[in-house]
Amino acid sequence: KSPKSVITSILAAGFMLFLGGCGPNEDSSQANTEMRTSEDVAWAELSSPSEFVRHDEPVYFSFKSLGLADNDPRINSLSVPSKASQLVDVDADGEKDGLMMLLDFKPAETIRIEIKAEATGGAENAKKRTQAEISRKTGGEWQDRKYLGGAFENVNELVPPPQHTDHSEFIRYEGPGIESDKVGYRIYLDWRNGFDIFGKKTPEMVLQNVGQDGFESYHHMADWGMDILKVGDALGVGGYGYWNGEKVERVSNVDGWQAKVVENGDIYSALRIIYKGWQVADKQVDLTSDISMTAGSRLAHVRLEVSEELPHIAIGLVKHEGTKLLQGDVNVSGYAWTYVASYGKQSLSGENDNLGMALLFKRGSRDAQTEDAHNYVSVMELTGNNQLEYYFVAAWDGEPNGIKSEQEFVAYLEREAERLTMPPRTRLTTALGLASKTYPITAEQALAWSRKMADSELERSTLKYAYGGFDVMRKRPAFWEYTTGLQLQAYYDLAEATGKRGYAETAEQVIGSFVADDGAIRTYKEDKFNIDSINSGKMLLRLYEDEDTEKYRLAAEHLRRQLEKHPRTSEGAFWHKKIYPYQVWLDGVYMGMPFLAHYSVLFEEGASLEEAVNEFKVVHKHLRDPETGLYFHAWDEKKVQEWADPETGRSRFFWSRGLGWFAMALVDILDYIPEDKKELREPLIEMIRELAPAVVKVQDAGTGLWYQILDQPDRTGNYLESSGSSMFVYMLAKAVNQGYLPSSYKEAAIKGYEGIIREFINVHPDGTISITNACTVAGLGFGRNGSYRYYMSEPVVDNDPKALGPFIMAGVEISKLLEGN
């Protein structure tokens, strides 16, 4: 075949396999006939995780994730079978960066779409459903602080002159405006910085007509609606300022403003406002605010960024007499969205209408809820890069089919919080990815994928995890984290497998940056008694073995001292953390026990090996389910935690990565227990042989992968998860390589690895790759109640170190496994 026809066959077969059609060894000639593969860009399967209808759900794919370079000529002809789509500039840098589309989901519905580059151009949208505008006068003149005469003209960017202030009649409706087919908002571009509401009686776009005939016209009811909020001295709906401990200081004292229309599209519009030289809290900072809306939604999305650290950013709602403050659930994960709202007869329409206003934010970003004379105030914490993300929303009962009661408003906010917390589950396959992957995987290819992932992450962020750097996943300064040790251990394994010393040097560079010459570990706090902190110690021991550098031995001593003092259960198992008393989590076995065994062999003549093995025995006793052979996530010895079964103390679900940690710990600790210590090795090997069939039993037959909740693949919201899948492949492959499992498990390991490559590895046009669909974190307590919904609520992201590290290590072990053919 010609190279073109070979690629065509690969694309067609891969697409049919993705859709559940013919397999790779079946006849796909029909697919080749029906598909115009030269135009194919990507295929996506999107599933709603909700049991309610989700109308106008915005779905975004970056060009990079679709396998398209920024200058790819196909971008302008992208077509997708959705109700509407738009090329958008989400990061507001002035360049289009991705494709946004609107989809309607029935409860728990799965939708499959094909993204193509059509010769006739992109999809045609039915109508304009969002708008952003800035309109200022021209042709008149300033007299004192009034602009007299002239006519309004829309501009894409505006820097108001120094004489501009409130009611100067220079900017139409006094600032930038943004609207959807549901509601409109305006932002005062002056010292007040208030956020106001245009209640709409029509789904049509109205901003272009508002205020054209005078500054007072929009304060009176018209066919389109009117300005319905009295802002006064408050922030209005969702405005921002600074909390000084007693009241909100608005963004008033500034050197100047700059407003820009970033997008003015059919389904997505956005504004950027820059406040130069804001004098606040004895500082002078620049504040950038990006505000966007999508069609069919009342929500306005706000991203704030401050030029330097500024504590106590305040966001708020105007506090009107007779309104009721409503609070969403705060007993949720810190990454989950919740809300604070007001409801009541606070509309200016003069018709006794009800108006609801709300702020939606990630629960962990709010420091306190308070109020002053004019505002209900949410005091927020900026992330480590001085950013804040939230939404504001208004719902007026005068809009068509509007929300008519407090009960309806609360139900609406609950649904919106769930939509933000749990976006559609996504499986993406690209033409570039299909053309870049071949099967069956060879030993050389497995190692090449590991190298490509390590190289890609080096380009993205690995070196940023060093001391003084920035943790891009957690959006905070880099710390002595378990994730750092995990990722760098993968680099070290890769160096040993390939002979490429550079990977080991990277590991030393990052881990070594935290270690002072006297062995002190920067940012490490022993008195927290956090078992996670031990994991990066594995790299200290490997570096010490290879280099005999004293500071690494001294640093490892600090971690060993923590384990000596670490609080334990009555059977000697380590608490997960001091703040999690009497709790043993599967995660902690991996974090601490291979380190303890390795340290004991190096420096204690193996005196603590039995102690390390005991941890596995306690976990096996209390967390293994005899019916399935799987392990529950955690155990509370006191049986008092919210998430714990009152009879067994166990949590309720089999979490993929939790069991993945334990599985990796089983095969890793055996590296350090001498062969002649059969009384210690045999119980662990027996656990491996007992666990392997249970893991394979819940392996997805179609993809070879594993679900976030292992034994409930068909439950709404559940998804194939990359970190746990990578961990199980690593365990199975290494166990076969080491002789702990028979060769009959080789097939499951290879099937799982090929599934990871098919499903989770996204190939980019710049030659880098990503790993997708990783659960960011899952824990118990502090708002994490261990429910099924909780495990579904944690963010699903790309390139999390907890997926990257195991993927690289799995490739190393699969390469060894395939070499053994």
Can you describe what's shown?
- A hairpin with a 2-residue loop joins strand 8 and strand 9.
- The model is unreliable at about 1-40 (pLDDT under 50).
- With about 800 residues, the protein is of the alpha+beta class.
- It is elongated.
- The protein is about 30% helix and about 25% strand.
- The two termini are about 30 Å apart.
- A nine-stranded antiparallel sheet has the order 11-18-19-20-21-28-25-24-23, with helices on one face.
Tally of individual helices: 17
- Show unreliable segments: 1-38
State the major sheet. Answer: 9 strands, antiparallel
What structural category characterises the helix and strand content? alpha+beta
Number of strands: 37
Helical proportion, percent range: 25-40%
Overall pLDDT metric: 93
Please report the distance between the alpha carbons of the first and last residues: 29 Å
Q: Name the overall outline.
A: elongated
CA radius of gyration is 29 Å
Q: Which assembly state applies to the chains in this document?
A: single chain
Largest sheet strand order: 11-18-19-20-21-28-25-24-23
Beta-strand portion reads: 15-25%
Topology:
Blueprint: H1 3-18, H2 29-34, E1 40-47, E2 54-62, E3 78-79, E4 84-88, E5 98-105, E6 110-117, E7 130-138, E8 141-143, E9 146-148, E10 151-155, E11 157-158, E12 177-180, E13 183-187, E14 195-200, E15 225-227, E16 237-243, E17 248-250, E18 256-264, E19 268-280, E20 283-294, E21 300-306, E22 313-318, E23 324-327, E24 337-344, E25 355-362, E26 366-371, E27 375-380, E28 387-396, H3 406-421, E29 425-430, H4 431-436, H5 443-460, E30 470-471, E31 476-477, H6 482-498, H7 501-512, H8 537-547, H9 550-565, E32 583-585, H10 586-603, H11 609-623, E33 634-636, H12 656-669, H13 678-697, H14 722-737, H15 746-760, E34 761-763, E35 769-771, E36 774-775, H16 788-793, E37 796-797, H17 801-819
Antiparallel strand pairs: 1-6, 1-29, 2-5, 3-6, 4-5, 7-10, 7-12, 8-9, 11-18, 12-13, 13-14, 14-15, 16-17, 16-22, 18-19, 19-20, 20-21, 21-28, 22-27, 23-24, 24-25, 25-28, 26-27, 30-31, 32-33, 34-35, 36-37
Helix pairs in contact: 5-6, 5-17, 6-7, 6-17, 8-9, 10-11, 10-12, 11-13, 12-14, 14-15, 14-17, 15-17
